[in-house]
Amino acid sequence: RRFLHFKGISRPVVSPTFIYYESYPSDDGDVVYYHFDLYRISSEDEFFMLGGEEIMQDENAICLIEWPESISGLFADDRTIRMYFEMEDDGKTRKVTVRVP
Question: Please, what are the domains in the chain?
């Protein structure tokens, strides 16, 4: 949510758990951000049926993907920024690790 708000998306950002993804066009129309929640997806075929492959191939799309394990074979290592979130022992603080190509 914070990433999309930082990028200027003013409408509410909701979790797409039950609809799999939500799109957020930028104000200038140059980019469309896609927020995927793939918790309930178990294979690449399911992802393809949702139209995910076409979205990932769109040069104007930036995909933010939660629970990407079921489609991890689709990611080009030279184009994928990976973010890992861990809860610290205090239960209040998150540790964020970012891996950039």
Answer: 2-99 (3.40.50.300)
pTM score over 0.85: no
* Dist CA 49 CA 88 (whole Å): 37
**pLDDT tens-digit readout, 42-97:** 999 999 999 999 999 999 999 999 999 999 888 888 888 888 889 999 989 989 89
User: Is 73 strand, coil or helix?
Assistant: helix
**Residue type at 23?**
S
Cα angle for residues 19, 53, 62 (degrees, 5° grid)? 75
Contact status, residue 9 vs residue 24, Cβ threshold 8 Å: yes
Structure tokens at 27: 């104000």
Strands 32-37 and 61-66, how do they pair?
A: parallel
Give 100's contacts (C-beta < 8 A, 6+ positions apart). Answer: 81
